[in-house]
Design a protein that fits this description.
131 residues; alpha/beta; Transcription Regulator spoIIAA; 5 helices
Amino acid sequence: MTTLPPPEFTLDFVRDPGTLTVRLRGELDYDTSDDLLDAVLEQLTAGQAPRDVRLDFGDLTWIDSTGLSTLLMIHRRASTLGATLHLENRPAVLERMLLMTNVLDHLTAPAAGEGAGAELEEDGFSGAGAT
């Protein structure tokens, strides 16, 4: 019996005016979650913050609890910048996890508002380092 290696985890970014789209491929788990978080935070803080952050999961093959935690962190950072997170093309494995943990509505809630970025500065945290 031959065991195939897990699919390679890759990220593609597309920036349109006001929108950051991130396409994920492969497994979002303990081994890859930091890569996603670091790359998205870098994109969020490069230039003008987007109004919408779209995560496209069309080619996601697996997600574990670390991956879910990373989505929550991305939501927090995006909201702090006044951006709304969108979870698009969710495969069954992601949909089940979102429903079981009851976080879908939280993750896709509209951004808090325009003043959210100022709150970070007052607390002494930057969008890149706060958790």
